[in-house]
Amino acid sequence: MNRINTRVNALNRLIGLIGLMLTLLLAGCGGGGGSSSDTGSSDSPVKLLANLQPGDCAVPENNDNFVNGLSVGGCNQPHNMEVAGRFDFSTIGDPAYATGTDYPGHLAVQQKAYDQCQSVFKSYTGISFWPDNWKQAAAAGALSTQYDINTITPSASTWADGDRSVICLIVRLDGQPLRASVGN
What we know:
Elements: H1 2-28, E1 46-47, E2 57-62, E3 67-73, E4 81-88, H2 106-125, H3 134-139, E5 147-152, H4 156-160, E6 165-172
Antiparallel strand pairs: 1-3, 2-3, 2-4, 4-6, 5-6
């Protein structure tokens, strides 16, 4: 149970980062729907959220108050997060998240994204996010994963514009930088 609480605490610490990244999503993606290109010059490693792809290893670009973009580089360099994949809420078969529905609320969107990103995590890494015996392992203090999932989800305003896109990120549970790709 302690490892589960640790995961929840780590997720809560990263909520601030998510909020900052959502600022970029709103500013950089023009409220969803439209296409975007990378920022900066053609050799710039900074990408808009809309352009992140599985396998991108990234560090937020900070400007004192908000995230401007994600600096994407080699996974052999220290990085805060790795893109495991993307999905669209409209494809998960839950009518509450379909196109044309009202925004279910920030917490509901975050929880559904976190749940859905667990299968994206498994596809990307080749390991289960929660082992089949997670309850027993948690009770014994034996959960061994060092990774957690972070998500970038639509806001209420981008949801109203039809945005249902979710980016699934892998981060270290202890908040330390990743130093290699976690993809299989």
